[in-house]
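Journal club prep, notes for RB
We'll compare a predicted complex against what the paper describes. Inputs for the adenosine-5'-diphosphate case:
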Amino acid sequence: MELKQIQIRPTSTSTSISSPVKHKKSDYSFSENTPNSNALPLLLYLTNAVFFAAVYFLLVSWRDKIRHSKPLHVVSSSEMAALLAFAASFVYLLGGFFNPLQEQQELESQEDEEEKQKITNLKKKLENDQHVTPAAAIKSTDPIIMSEDEDEDEDEEIVNGVAEGRIPSYSLESKLGDCKRAAAIRRKALERITGKSLDGLPLESFDYESILGQCCEMPVGYVQIPVGIAGPLLLDGEEYSVPMATTEGCLVASTNRGCKAIYASGGATSVVFKDGMTRAPVVRFSTAKRAAQLKLFLEDPLSFETIAAAFNKSSRFARLQTIKCAIAGKNLYMRFTCSTGDAMGMNMVSKGVQNVLDFLQTTDFPDMDIIGISGNFCSDKKPAAVNWIEGRGKSVVCEAIIKEDVVNKVLKTDVASLVELNMLKNLTGSAMAGALGGFNAHAANIVSAVFIATGQDPAQNIESSHCITMMEAVNEGKDLHISVTMPSIEVGTVGGGTQLASQAACLNLLGVKGASKEVPGANSRRLATVVAGAVLAGELSLMSAIAAGQLVKSHMKYNRSNKP
Ligand code: ADP
């Protein structure tokens, strides 16, 4: 994505406006202006020739003397001349060798001066130009080496720019190319603007690159939520340690007690009886008749193959399952349902829906006016009967038979009290309240805690917590049959927050991290059953606490600790 094409932050090989420039010698060794052997003056060439000619003449002459056994110290006049020429040219060449180096050093210091001047000019320009940020200027200059102090000075300059509104806060990541630095600068600017301290909101030890363009914009830190473990939850023959991120005292302890009761009774079983994410665009025609024609077309089994071909083309995992339409006058709401593999699937289903809308407009329904890709008949993150009745995401039922002695010893109550309480509270009480999917004691508590721990979208807790809890005395009234039916658990193990380190660790603990290698969708379905299993445990424990009159007592113990 575009935001990810970030600029590399200045390091020792890039330039800052605020620091003096230090060039490596090698930067200049072969520059155009540097004197080298090609640029030597003519006199130097001649001296070179004299030097080598004298050396050659002397060597030849001494070789002949040695051959004819003549003494070397007897020097002829020509040899004397050659010796003088050799000495003179040698001295001259020695001087010529050092001179260019000296010139080079002079040139270096001259260029350093020029560079300093360039930086001073740039600074002046920045001061005058309100729209050029120091970070932007970083891009345009040459390599430098920055010290820590210079780094801080530069950050301070950017903080001021953000606080004064000259630099947009949202642009820091792309301009600096360093997400952690961007967050730190934004945070300082925020403190300066608001006059409020953010001490206590941690900044360090977080991978800000991992959320860029994915999970959160304009970060200034992160909130810490403790993660507790309930379990083992014995579900479908497997043991799960369930991570719950919460700040509500009692919640993990209570769910843990429910898990213990389930375990001692032989475990719970679950079934995913539906798996499909939905998206429902709203379109408008000039007549109700045309809207009805499209409804008939979309719901005609003969059309399905054509529509599915258009829908499925944008993903390997999105496979159209059904289309259910609702008419309101000239407006049509089309609820598309599709499988989404291990993704929660909102992106996937939206892309598929867009494909179908394009197809309809270019074929038999060019008069269709697309009002919105989402027309709330989906329905996402809002209480709606359509999800409760039709299901959305994973529809799961989970059950267990809790033995009489476990009800007595672990849950400290009895079967008859639990069945009566369930009927009067979860069923009748919720009916009296006009509940929509809220026929339970506290499913949302467990759903939210597991959602946050495993990187799900917490706002989808609204429909994911739809749950009806049923209790019945079985085995001649001795044991308790308990079930939770949850028609719209919206979870995924790829995409969104699931890829962040801590959330991925929690998914890993459950053995459902990432995409399933064997069957696409198996991991996300398993996660949905774990959510339902944990809800079962939570319902069992809270209902028992209420039945036994323990609720206030235990909250006083865990929520109001002895701390002053
Ligand atoms: P969502 O649709 O839940 O918003 P994303 O679009 O963020 O999810 O993530 C889904 C992405 O992950 C898609 O690009 C998809 O191709 C990819 N992907 C890889 N493996 C799987 C899998 N097993 N199931 C679903 N999606 C997968």
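Talking point for the session: The first helix runs from residue 42 to 67.
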